[in-house]
Amino acid sequence: MQFCPTSFALSLTMLLLSPVAWGTVNQDPSSQSVKRSIQESSTSPTFDSKSAFNYLVKQTQFGPRGPGLAGHERCLNFLQNELKKFADDVQLQQFPFTLSTGKQVLLTNIICAFNATARRRIAFSAHWDTRLWADQDSDPKNHKKPILGANDGASGVAVLLEIARHMRLNPPSIGVDIILFDGEDLGTTGRPETFSVGAKYFARNLPPDFNPRFGINIDMIGDRELRIPREVSSDRFAPELMNLLFRTARDLDIPQFIDAPGSDISDDHLPLNEAGIRTVNLIDFAYPDASNKYWHTLADTPDKCSSASLAAVGRVLLAIIYSKASFVQ
Ligand code: 1BN
Ligand code: ZN
User: Fold this and answer.
1) What total of structural domains would you count in the chain?
2) Does residue 152 line the site of ligand 1, with CB under 6 A?
């Protein structure tokens, strides 16, 4: 065999970049700029932000998607059909729940596997339901009306649908589980423990063999004025994963990730951590700014969101799937 200096250099670079074995290397070499540029030019996939934003708009076109509403049932059908095009396996986890109003509803978590036979797996999640009550709206007449949830509901799902579509076209070498939780937003304001009904049910009824190395939950990441700080409880549960996410964003020049502490938010990552799956939450809980004036109001509509914001998160998650996941011990 002839000696080829170019392929020798490439092999050496690959050897330097690849973790020796899964889980044994936790040093992300991305601070070394030469390696980084080689790595990203060869492996950093592109995230289709227009397609993602279409997914956001599509969900809102079903109307409010709170449990018991027509939009909830129609959106569930859409999500199931769309994910079946992309995933190896799609399962529904259904269970009854009684709302604070006394009404009985059926909740559905959607659980999908990509590269289903891979042993090394990671998980992504988002909630697909929207709040039944706009109880933070400035007009009290709206407090019992359901919200459209362009940001609070559709944004996280839009990014994960686009990632699912991407994985169909570019099969990852690791396994990826995507869970879309129902019933995240049924809680009573001021009682955070009453939220995340679907994620709690999932955590108490984990599918057999569900064992990802870590999880990343995304929520309220569509805000046009996106700023994602480090959610406080996530830094307690999985500081190395948080470091990797924020370092990846910095290396990719994604300014929407703010490497500074944010708030402590009760969200769907908490039940997963309680079930032993270390999971972080990427959330911008300042919609559109510190006033949070669009949160749980009728103003949570697509015009308050942007494709660039979805892409900021989508690009980081794709980098995790295709080149960075193995750096988490
Ligand atoms: C996030 C989006 N959450 C609800 N909609 C979680 C949450 C619960 C945030 C209680 C603050 C308080
Ligand atoms: Zn909400």
Assistant:
1) 1
2) yes
Q: Which of 265, 269, 296 to mutate to test the pocket of ligand 1 (most atoms within 8 A of CB)?
A: 265
Q: What is the DSSP letter of 92?
A: E
How far does the centroid of ligand 1 lie from the alpha carbon of residue 185, in Å?
7
Question: 192: CA distance to ligand 1 center in Å?
Answer: 7
Nearest ligand to residue 300 Cα: 2
Domain encompassing residue 311? 2-327
Per-residue pLDDT of the chain (329 residues; tens, 9 = 90+): 333 333 333 333 333 333 322 332 344 444 444 334 334 444 557 999 999 999 999 999 999 999 999 999 999 999 999 999 999 999 999 999 999 889 999 999 999 999 999 999 999 999 999 999 999 999 999 999 999 999 999 999 999 999 999 999 999 999 999 999 999 999 999 999 999 999 999 999 999 999 999 999 999 999 999 999 999 999 999 999 999 999 999 999 999 999 999 999 999 999 999 999 999 999 999 999 999 999 999 999 999 999 999 999 999 999 999 998 787 77
- Return the structure tokens found at 81: 């059909």
How far is the C-alpha of 195 from the C-alpha of 197, rounded, in Å? 6
Q: Which are the contacts of 134, defined by CB distance < 8 A and separation ≥ 6?
A: 142, 143, 144, 145, 146, 147, 296, 297, 298
Exposed e or buried b for every residue in 8-31, given b needs 16+ CB within 10 A? Answer: eeeeeeeeebebeeeeeeeebebe
Domain of 236: which CATH number?
Answer: 3.40.630.10
The count of C-alpha atoms lying within 13 angstroms of the C-alpha of 326, restricted to the half-sphere facing its C-beta, is 16
Query: What is the best residue among 151, 188, 193, 266 to mutate for testing ligand 1's pocket, by most ligand atoms within 8 Å of CB?
Result: 266
Distance 72 CA to ligand 2 centre (A): 15
